[in-house]
Amino acid sequence: MQKSKEVFYKICFDSLLEGICIANHEGRIVMNNSAVEELFGYEKGELTGKEITQLIPEAQRKIHLEYFQNFIKHPRKYKKGKGREFLGLHKNGQVLDLEIGLNYFRHEGKFYAKALISEISIRKRKELRIKEKNKNLELVVEEREDQLIGLVSELELSNRKLKEEIKERVFAEQRAKLAFEKEKELNILQTKFISLASHEFKTPLSGIMTSASLIQKYNEVQSNPRIAKHTNTIKSLVGQLNNILDDFLFLENSERKGYPMHLSRFRLSDLINKLVEDATALLKEGQNIKISPFDPSTELQHDRKVIDIIIRNVLFNAIKYSSRNSTVSIKICTQNDLKLVIEDQGIGIPNEAKEYIFDRFYRAKNALPIQGTGIGLNIVKRHLQRINGSIDVESEEKIGTKVSIDLPLSIED
Ligand code: ADP
C-alpha cells in the first residue's frame, strides 16, 4: 500500500510540466523531476548528487553560490513570477532563460531548498522583440516629432512673414490712398487756378479781337495789304488763344457741373469747311489738306460746338505735329454713323507714350518742342464718351499718325 502511494507521488512529481529541483544545504541536488532533466538535457537520474551550480553558466556561478549561502542563512519564500529570472546552462552548453520560485523545508532536522523552474526563453525572445519594436517605434515617433517640430517652426516663420507682408501692404495702401487724395486735391487746385486765369485772359483778349476788327475797317488799312495781313494774323492767333482758354474753361465746368448740350441740326459739310478754313491759316509751307469726297447733304443732330471741338483738336494736331511739304488727309464716311479718319505724315507718337496721350496735360517727349497744353485729346475723349462715340489712334514715330473717330449721326436730347 505504502509502495503504491510512493509510485503515485512519483508519477505526480514527474508529470509536472514545471521543473522541481530539491537541493540540500551543500547545494547538491537530492531530487528532481523529469521536467528538470528535459530542460537541462540530462538523462534520467543523472543530476542526482550533482551540485546545482552545474546548471548555472560559469560566469554566474560565483554570484549564485553567494546567493544560495545567503538563502540558507536567511531562508524565505520567493514566489515565481515576481521577476526572479536567471540564466541556466544546458548540458550542451546552451544558455537558458529561466524563471525560478524558491522555497525551503526541513526534514529530519536537515535543510532543503526547493526550486520551481520554468523556461522563459520564448517569452524572453518575445519580450525582446517587443522591446526592439518599441524602440524602433520610439525612434520613428522621435523622428516624426522632429519633423513635426521643424514643420511647425517653418509654418510659424512663414506665418510671421505673411503677417509682415500684410502689414507692409496695408501701409503701402494707406500711402497710395494718401498720395491719391493729395493728387486729387492738387488737380482741383490746378483746374481752379487755370480756370481763374483763363477768365482773366478772356476779357483783354476779346478787347484785342474787337480792336483788330475795328482796325480792319479803317480806309488806310484796307488800302494797305500788309496791315490787313498782320491784323488777320492777330485775329487768328487771338482765336487760337481763345480756343485754348475755352478748353481750360470746359475742363473746369465739366468737372464742376457737367457740360450742358445745345442740340441743333446742321450740315456736316458746313462744319468741315469752316474747320478747314481755320486750319488753312495754320498750314506750313508746302503743307496741304486733302479731303476725300463725301455726301455734302449729310446732316448731323448734335451740339455743333462739341463736334467742332472734337474734329478741330484732331485736325489741328495733325497739322501741328507734321512738317512742311506734307499732306494731312481727311476721309469721311456717313453711311450708318459718322466715320472720320484724319491722317498725317508727322512726328508720330512714341510707343511708350501711346497709352497716356488721353491723360490730361500729358505730352509725349517728341512733342515738347512744339507748342501745346496736353488737354486737347483729353477733352475729345470726354466729349466722345458723352455722345457714344469712340476714338482710335494708330501711329508710328517719324512716319505719321492716323486718328479714327466714330460717332452717331444724331443724338437725342
Ligand atoms: P497738345 O496740346 O500737346 O497737342 P493733345 O491732348 O492734343 O495736347 O495731345 C496730347 C499729346 O498726344 C501731344 O502732346 C502729342 O504728344 C500727342 N499727339 C497728339 N496728336 C498727335 C499727332 N497727330 N502726331 C503726333 N503726336 C500727337
Which helices and strands occur, and which strands form pairs?
Elements: H1 2-15, E1 19-24, E2 29-32, H2 34-40, H3 61-73, E3 85-89, E4 95-107, E5 110-119, H4 121-217, H5 219-223, H6 225-256, E6 263-267, H7 268-280, E7 288-291, E8 299-303, H8 304-320, E9 327-333, E10 337-344, H9 376-386, E11 390-396, E12 400-408
The protein binds adenosine-5'-diphosphate.
Uncertain spans, ≥5 residues at pLDDT below 50? Answer: none
- Write out the CATH superfamily name of the domain at 261-408: Histidine kinase-like ATPase, C-terminal domain
Succession of helices and strands: HEEHHEEEHHHEHEEHEEHEE
Per CATH, the class of the domain at 261-408 reads Alpha Beta
Strand order of the largest sheet: 2-1-5-4-3
Helix content: 40-55%
- Overall mean pLDDT stands at 90
Query: Compute the gyration radius: what is it?
Result: 59 Å
Number of helical regions: 9
What is the tally of beta strands?
12
Task: Assign the CATH topology of the domain at 261-408.
Answer: Heat Shock Protein 90
CATH architecture of the domain at 261-408: 2-Layer Sandwich
Query: Could you say which overall geometry the principal axes of the C-alpha atoms support?
Result: rod-shaped
Enumerate the distinct ligands.
adenosine-5'-diphosphate
> Which percent range describes the beta-strand content?
15-25%
Structural class: alpha+beta
Oligomer: single chain
